[in-house]
Amino acid sequence: MMAQYETVIGLEVHVELATKTKIFCGCSTAFGGAPNSHTCPVCTGLPGSLPVLNKQVVEYAMAVGLATNCQINQYCKFDRKNYFYPDNPQNYQISQLYYPICHDGGIKIDVNGQKKIVRIHEIHMEEDAGKLVHDEWEDVSLVDYNRSGVPLIEIVSEPDMRSADEVIAYLEKLRLIIQYLGASDCKLQEGSMRADVNLSVRPVGAEKFGTRTEMKNLNSFKAIARAIESERARQIELIEEGKSVVQETRRWDDNKEYSYPMRSKEDAQDYRYFPEPDLPPLQIPDEWIERLKSAQPELRDEKMARYKEEYEIPDYDADIITGSKRMADIFEQTVALGAAPKKVSNWLMTETMRLLKEQMMDPDELDFSPKHLAMLIALVEKKTINQTIAKEVFEKIFADDIEPESYVKEHGLGMVSDTDALQKTVEEVIAANPQSVADYKAGKQKAIGFLVGQTMKVMKGKANPTAVNEILVKLLNE
């Protein structure tokens, strides 16, 4: 029955910009900090204080606009959005309604081989509000204005998405573009990227949109996907029962996997927008736009194509590595230090990904230096250490960014290639494993692998496996 309906989705994505200071004052934007310690008369809305626009905010907004194929509004201005809420100290928010900084863009997404463009209606700059902290024990609400005045851009899409998969593909593409630009870290768990989902359903083939609802409080891609599926099913059920969908804002509870109404949109208060009297309009000259265009970094799609051509690494490797700006940086810097691209890729694809998964970390949290990874690869190349020891040393590099050469020396992990010492150990292993020797002589080649393993065990993993293999073959065939 559900297949007779089409889901129509548009997104409003709020992104906290990576400026050191707030949009209209010099207060710090650092995450955390004691409540109300990053505040001043401007961001706490004290009478007589005046906003001064942060130039870096404008540059980041334009950079995101250019990277998402938007037009830049060379005449743009700020507006006052009036509403009363305890976390909003001035009782208005400075935003952009009539002349946003960017408009009419779009990005290409690929879902299961199906490519489509999701259009971007506009990108506008605005200030964030403070944060309410509800103390249930004392039955009071406290307000922290540290976040008040932190610069945001809001990226408003057209209703071009038709499924949760398309929404996630759009968000992931957007997040990577913004991270590659350095405009934001886009950490959903810290609230530096937040998405509100506008969703409606309509019969397949219908021209007219259904009644939409807006879903808030979505702080992970999984929560967004679950919220979309739940809201789609809820609206279809209402329509099937002959009831009407109410246009409203709903809050998603990810633990209960349920949304509940916050406020009706039909009688949503008029924000009484008017031009911000304390900020002059912004005139953006052609040269400023050209300078930002020429400073745009290589984004993920171009990087991926270049990796395949220049480094000849498989598509799969290039896809995973460029999926995180941090990992791409480590890869390129390690290669620049002389390590073979495929060897660097192997360390990132196997050991790095394994440790990230085990420790439930994000690739953007990697903090070991490319220099130490390049040194480790060189130690294996020069046969100073074998692959088994290299994995052990890499775990220390991953955790504590140790300098591998000194670590190997201090812990006596260098590979033993001394033929006499190896031969003595191999003879002991042969004497202790008569069954495996008999199996080998009976033509079972796997037996030699077991004997190599036993020798490595006795040598605490430090033996040269090639030398061990050669000595074993020689002794067993005598």
TrEMBL record:
Function field: Allows the formation of correctly charged Asn-tRNA(Asn) or Gln-tRNA(Gln) through the transamidation of misacylated Asp-tRNA(Asn) or Glu-tRNA(Gln) in organisms which lack either or both of asparaginyl-tRNA or glutaminyl-tRNA synthetases. The reaction takes place in the presence of glutamine and ATP through an activated phospho-Asp-tRNA(Asn) or phospho-Glu-tRNA(Gln).
Name of the molecule in the record: Aspartyl/glutamyl-tRNA(Asn/Gln) amidotransferase subunit B
Top-level division of the source organism's lineage: Bacteria
Key word Ligase present: yes
PROSITE patterns to which the protein is assigned, alphabetical: GATB
Catalytic activity: L-glutamyl-tRNA(Gln) + L-glutamine + ATP + H2O = L-glutaminyl-tRNA(Gln) + L-glutamate + ADP + phosphate + H(+); L-aspartyl-tRNA(Asn) + L-glutamine + ATP + H2O = L-asparaginyl-tRNA(Asn) + L-glutamate + ADP + phosphate + 2 H(+)
All copies of domain Asn/Gln amidotransferase, residue ranges: 329-476
SUPFAM superfamilies named in the record: GatB/YqeY motif (SSF89095), Glutamine synthetase/guanido kinase (SSF55931)
Family stated for the protein in its record: Belongs to the GatB/GatE family. GatB subfamily.
SMART domains: GatB_Yqey
Subunit: Heterotrimer of A, B and C subunits.
NCBIfam families xref list: gatB, PRK05477.1-2, PRK05477.1-4
Protein's UniProt keywords contain Ligase: yes
EC supergroup of this enzyme: ligase
GO terms for MF: ATP binding; glutaminyl-tRNA synthase (glutamine-hydrolyzing) activity
Alphabetical list of Pfam families matching this protein: GatB_N (PF02934), GatB_Yqey (PF02637)
EC numbers on record: 6.3.5.-
InterPro entries, alphabetized: Asn/Gln-tRNA_amidoTrfase_suB/E (IPR017959), Asn/Gln-tRNA_Trfase_suB/E_cat (IPR006075), Asn/Gln_amidotransferase (IPR018027), Asn/Gln_tRNA_amidoTrase-B-like (IPR003789), GatB (IPR004413), GatB_C_1 (IPR042114), GatB_Yqey_C_2 (IPR023168), Gln-tRNA_amidoTrfase_suB_CS (IPR017958)
Keyword annotations from UniProtKB, A to Z: ATP-binding, Ligase, Nucleotide-binding, Protein biosynthesis
Species this protein is from: Anthropogastromicrobium aceti
Example of a GO biological process term: glutaminyl-tRNAGln biosynthesis via transamidation
